[in-house]
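[job 4471] stage=fold_predict status=RUNNING
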Amino acid sequence: MLANSAVSVHTDNIVHFNTPRHNKGWQYLLSDSLAFQKQHMQQHGHTIRIQKPDSQHLPAWIKRLIRSGQCEAIFVENLQLSEEEHLTIKALCTEFCVSLVGLTINDESNNNVVHGPW
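[job 4471] inference complete, writing structure tokens
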């Protein structure tokens, strides 16, 4: 789903929903160094990568994306929220049926993964 040939990525489902939608929602990736693979983009169609805002503005961005009503999933690189923000965002995810996934980069595997069409 995510492309970054130099690192492995660990995911942590903060809030996950597997509910069918009449219209496909948007999938957002808030990241400094990751991107969606082209195959994922072709399969899901509605994907956007956004440069991750600083930690002070991140919770507000996540809330805006959820409240838009067009969001299906949000993937966030190195997601860290205060307990209060975590509870607020979790409630919004439940209300708007949005999956929030935290991604953690494992730098230990640096340069051990090779991707390519052979």
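[job 4471] summary: The first helix runs from residue 38 to 44.
[job 4471] exit 0
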